[in-house]
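Human:
Take a look at this sequence-structure pair and walk me through the tokens.
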Amino acid sequence: MTEKKYEAPAAAAVLELLEFMVAEPGAWGPTELARRLELTANLTFRILNVLSEKGYVRKNAAGQYELTAALFSLGMKLQNSFDLRKQARPWLEKLALETRESVQIQVPDGDRMLQLDFVAPPAAYYQAVTPGSRIHWHGNAFGKAVWAFLPDAEAEKIMALPRPQMNIHTVTDPQLIRRELEDVRRTYSSSEFEEYLLGNYCIGSPVFNATGRVVAGVGITGMSSRLDPESIPELRAKVLACAENISDSIGYQGGYIHEP
């Protein structure tokens, strides 16, 4: 038997209760739930109270509790993320082959962007990025690609977040950021040259879902020392094509603006 390194009885009880209510749909009274799960009445009541406050269960007129659609919605968000990763993977691999640079895709994760996937290029050395990493929105080409196309209220919430100065090249001034986001909206292309990490550059583009909402930023990451400035327009075009192909694969029917 595997030894349990940590124990959190209350958290385990919450999960047991949710798993039971998913497996046994319907309305349940606190006493019956406590009996079926072998929990104390007090703990069961407190769990139901918290879940009710968070919107995961509702109490009916008979004093019984049933699940709401909130848990389903939470699961769908996770499913959508996994589906995006699956659909994006072939295009990420293609972009890595075409550019011979590291390729990544990031998705919004509250106050940061989340590294969803990474593809290494066919090169002897390259910039590696760890999936699961959380990266600031500013100074981040993939964050900018998403930020530029968010509804105004959401974009302003991001603008209100702390913007640490990662190095001397990091742009933190809100006016300069707004100007850059306007350029991203016009060109569908974003970039950062050593804003996040010295010696590193990124070029990104936005990914949209079937409803037209921006859901990810995708593109390349490389070492500034081997970047040929004359190749930037071609790299931007390849990144944009990758983003467009991913968007098409998840149902987006809008268009992208291609610079002449």
User: Anything to note?
Assistant: The longest strand covers residues 214-223. The first helix runs from residue 9 to 23.
